[in-house]
Amino acid sequence: MKLPGPSLLRNNPANCRFVLKMFFSALVATGVLLAGAPANAAKVESAGNASVYGQPDQLSVASGIAAMTSRSDGAGYWIATSDGTVLQFGAASHFGDMSAVTLNKPVVGMASTKTGNGYWLVASDGGIFSFGDAVFYGSTGALALNSPIVDMTASTTGAGYWLVAADGGVFSFGDAVFYGSTGNLVLNRPIVGMLSTKSSLGYWLLADDGGIFTFGDAGFYGSGPGKGFTDPFAGMIPTVDGNGYSLVHSNGRITAFGSSTLVKAASCDPWPVSDMSVSGAGAVLLRTAAKVPSGLPSKHSAVLDANYIQKLISHSQACQTYQPPQLQSLGSPLLEPVKTSGYGWRRHPIWGELSVHHGVDFIGPNRTSGGAALAVASGTVMAVSDLTAYGTTIIVDHGEQIASVYGHLKEAMVEPGQEVGVGASLLVSWGQRVCLQELISTWNSG
After folding, report:
1. Up-side HSE of residue 189: CA atoms within 13 Å toward CB?
2. In which band, very low, low, confident or very high, does the pLDDT at 5 lie, cut at 50, 70 and 90?
3. Fold that domain 42-288 belongs to in CATH
4. CA neighbor of 110 nearest in space, from 93, 97, 99, 101
5. Which has the closest alpha carbon to 125: 100, 150, 102, 96?
6. What single string gives the DSSP state of each residue in 253-298?
7. 2-34+297-444 belongs to CATH 3.50.50.60
8. What is the model's pLDDT at position 279?
9. For 314-353, what is each residue's pLDDT tens digit?
């Protein structure tokens, strides 16, 4: 159904440099509508020669997805939830989980034994839970950590493992040897992953900006920032010869370094890659639906909502080719818009604090709501959301990494997947104003 079209957001896949967005901000809320995206949704996709053996049942992952790991032969994989439930796929067998126990902290990582007949789960406090032929070699559960544990990796013998914290602190157990850490450094971005070398005589740490830290016999073959990327990364895949690796971006792009030849283009998928696992000569990637901001309104709500929207749009448009927006061709967000607040520093009308207003507020003539919010350009409705600060919000995808966002609205008149044209009625504005926010952001595709 094509309706006659506006607030804009521009994205370029991969690195955020320069983005254009328009929001009509909003009031209070609790959810987001994406075509077929239930809360805590998750799905698996393959890279290289890896096989997908099944998808997680959404009911089983209601507590939230935590991690995944694969059999060394690539014949199956496991997915763990935050509460310690373990799901198995392919030839991977179920050896037990923590679903019947109330954990002190959520599960954040998982590793398989060398035989594929067992696995470990690690919680954010470093608590270790072993199943099958996985042996318990120790934990940090009794320690006061400076930063939470975010990942674990096993030694090639299977007789030990390392844990890594968000600040790069490394803890070794069993035959896993400590070769160093970044725990005493001030990192630009947190560590999100760890990988042992083929010999287990070293390891790599991966930061979420693609920064690589090497220890022991781990070689440095390049990093995300070194190639100009600024988008988030989710994991790394080693080469068989140990002389390279590929980095996995949260948008599904895979970039090769050293002797690695494993690459993949970014996908237009609103669900970011949250974890991955080496599987044979490739990897399986785990995508999870982003958590919608919730809770009582506060001075931080607008920032949380804006970050959520930014990530949703950047992932949904990651495969698109950027074209500079023709701003002069945009339509009006209201029939007769009257500007009441401009872009820049101002005292927040509710919280009273000085902050930057990343948009322009409009009302109708004589301080009326101005009627329905109108699409500023033709496109496809990406999402209809209820957010804490932006309230009822609609996002329209205009292609070429341009999107528009409308908030402070009372009622949605469109649905996800619906096509709209310039001037299309999207929602009924909420009350006395509509906020059109513009952010310009660019993404370097490398």
Report:
1. 18
2. very low
3. Methylamine Dehydrogenase; Chain H (2.130.10)
4. 97
5. 150
6. -EEEEET----B-----SSPEEEEEEETTEEEEEEEPPPPP-SS--
7. no
8. 87
9. 999 999 998 887 776 778 878 888 877 777 888 888 888 8
